[in-house]
Every structure is written in C-alpha cells, then in structure tokens.
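User: I'll paste a sequence; please echo it back and then give the predicted structure.

Assistant: Echoing your sequence first, then the prediction.
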Amino acid sequence: MVKYSISPSNEKFEIPDEKISQNECLKIKEICVKERKKGKEIIVVQGLGFVGSIMSVVVADCEKNNKKPYFVLGVDLPTEKSYWKIPKINSGKSPFNVEDPEVERLFRRTVEVKKNLRATWIKEVYSEADIVVVDINLDVIKPELGNSKVFEVKIDSFKIAIYDIAERIKPNSLLLIETTVPPGTIEKIVNPILIECFEKRGIDIIKNPPLIAHCYERVMPGKEYVNSIKKIWRTLSGINDKASQKAKKFLSNIIDIENFPLSELQNPTASELGKILENSYRTMNIAFIYEWTLLAEDIGINLFDVVNTIRVRKGTHDNMMFPGFGVGGYCLPKDPLLAEWGSKFLFHREQNLNFSLEAVNVNDLMPHHTFKLLKKGLEGHIENAKITILGASYRKDVGDTRNSPTITLYDDIITEGGIVMIHDPYANKMEGREDIIICKDFKATLKQAEAVVFAVNHKQYENLIVKDLTSQIKRNACIIDASNVLSDNKIVELKKNNFSVFGVGKGHIKYLGGEKE
C-alpha cells in the first residue's frame, strides 16, 4: 500500500519503498566517493527540523580558503510526519516558511548551484560520515498543562537514533550533539551506547575511543535564522581532547569565531547544563513578569512603559521581559523538565528544581488570562460568539506553531461554545492539532467577528490601520491586545468608534481617550 507524507502547505509526497531505498543507498555511496575525490569531508546531519535543516544548508554553503570543504547529507525518517522535508530540500527549497530572505537563497545555491547538499532517509549514510551532527528532537510529554511534576522524557526514541549512528559510524569520526538533552546524557547514555556498539563491531575502544562532543545550538527562526547559526556565540565540550579539537575545527569553519568566539567547558555535562540553564533563565524571567502584569492591569498602569524605563540599566536589567500572551516553541516549555529528569534519573538527586518547575506551570497557564479578558470584553457571552485569533505561531514573523499558546486559548473558547477563526501569515497548520484550521484570508477571518485577539505581534498586524479592522468586524466588537500590537493612538481611535479594548499588561487602556471606564 502506497503511503504519503504531506507538507504543512499540503504538498503530497510518496514515501519510498524498499526498492527505491536500495537504489538510494547505491546512489549515496557513489556521491560520497565522487565528493571525497574532490577533497571534501562528508558531514551528515541527523534530523531536518528547524535546527537540522538550517544547519545542513549553512555547512553546505561553507567556504574556506576559496574551497568548499564539506558535502552535506541531511537525514530524516521516511515517515508520514517527516519524509516531506527530504524532497522539499532536494528541490532547492526550505522546508519551513520563515522571514529571513537568505534562507531560500542558501537552499537554491547549495542544492542547485554548488550541489553540496542532499537530503535522504538512508541510515547507511552514517557509515560515510566524517562528522555526524545530531539535531533531532528529544520530546517531553506533559499530560496536563500546569502540572510540571508529571512528565515523560522520550529518551528511548533518542537512544534509538544514537544506536542508528553507533552501529555504523567510523571509529575516527566525530559525533557532535546539538540536541538539547538532560545534563549527563552524553557521558551516561551516548558514550556507553557507542562503546557497546564499537565492541560488538570489534573496534578497540582503547585505541579508538568514541569521539563525542556537545555544542548546543541557539537557532532562532525569524529574520536572523541564518545568522543564528553563523553569527552567534557557541559553547562546546568534548568527551576527550581529540573530540574537542575536531569539534572546534569544524565549528570554526562555519561560525564567525573572530567576532563570536567559541567557549569551551570542562566536560559535556557542563555544556548540556548550560543550554538548559540558559533557557530556564528565560522561562523564569517570563513567569516573573506575569504577576506584575496582573498588578499593572488592576491599578491602571502600562507595564510596557515601566519595563522600558527599567531596561535602560544595561548589564543588569536590560533583558527584563515584557508582558505577553504565553510561552510556546520547542524549548522553553520543556527544557527545565529535562534538567529535572537528568537530576533525578542520571544523578539520582532527591532535590527538585522547584522554582524552575513552577515557572513552567505559570507559563503554561498564562493564556487563560487572555481568555478572561476576552470573556470580560464579551460580558461573559462566549457561547456562539464568533471570535478571531490573529496569530497561530509561538513567535513573531515565523511559521513555527509547536506548543503555541494559541492552542490553549482556542481550547478555552471552544470549551465554552465559542466559534473560532484563526489567521496567521506564516503558519499553515497547527503542529499536533489537525482539528485546528489556520485561515490565510485575513479579511475572511475577520468578517463579522464579535471579538478579535491579537495573539502574536506579526509585522502584518503591527502595520494594520484601524480601518482594516473596523471595516470587517461587527460594530461594538471587543479587541484584546495580548501581544502589544496596538499603539495608544490606535486604541484611542478604536474606543472613539465604540469598540471595547483590553490589553495584557496594559491597564492604562481604561484611561485612554477620556474618562476612566
């Protein structure tokens, strides 16, 4: 039976059968022989998601001393969920819709002009690699939002992926882990797997110890997608000196180390901890501002203005977070839980990371506050009300909907019988929620809406003029600014036209345009 993989933009790709896979394997071997004759190293990137796909194309585009040092093979699974990325990349196109114009140029250049990048699904490529870069997911399952002490780390899936490499990788090749993993993963999980497989393959681990390094990524889809690989500080650590040296040499070729020097830590566990601590700090910072958001709303203060006056203190307060709709994306909702898991299961500690876990809870439940504002604006009448949510992604000007807080708001509205329309200029579908439809027609989404929620501050929404809204929505509709899209002038204009406006962290709205409401 023929199976298909469907892309977020509804392109349909047939998943290859065994015969096609055998031919692909032969073709890959031929390509590797040809590229080695040109003096190139073979780099294999495992995982072609938001991180792996851009890492693949940046490495493939790399030039050193007017030479192209690498040929890159990107690998993903031949499954309904993942396979579509492979033919998409091989056609010279990015698998993801992002704001950075450099992305499409890079994919066209590396695939069609330089011919330095090919995507595949064949595991045998690991035996060809001089370096394998791991950029796969390590998922965390949270059965219930707001209860961060109950979760599951899908470590078995990660182990399977490492076994796929360990059973094939050459003993002198480098395994570079970029995936965010619990502290202790490389030394207590990955290295033992490689040792086990090397011994089964008859490889002398004294003469040829596994070469493993950890270097966490800081990839940010958006306008600086490419530069979040090439022009960003990176931290690394190898399991031994040889691994560290190989990792530094490789990373020095693809990163602007003159302006963004590499940092090296004492061991991979320190590097693993660094990534999770970095993201947990942001998680805590976001959760911290939430209770101040509620206070500011209650006492009539614009918290955005207040925070801006505090952020002038460079070096101590310039990264204080602004009020917001909620927290999404792949990293922040789960990374503190990876630290908790590593602490408990790899280091057998009894003490919990209680502050960090509670911050995850606060952030998970944050969209409920926007729902309360919406309910207030509709005077409690959610049932059968047509409500438009503007923004499905978790971040401005990207199409990534993983763990989007819009999902929580959508569920709140549906539970009380509301009718929801969602628009997003970048996202085509809601990750993990096929029941949620994203509309691309902005006017149709707004038509006759009784309430509008600005969930994401996409550029398109920030550039709206008031008439773009008022010409489509119902008279006297309510508008919830959950992401600081609307300027005070626009809010005043809306209020003058008898629209009610509420905003997250914008308690001052009640005073705009005249008398206190």
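The first helix runs from residue 18 to 37. The domain at 366-511 is CATH 3.40.50.720 (Rossmann fold).
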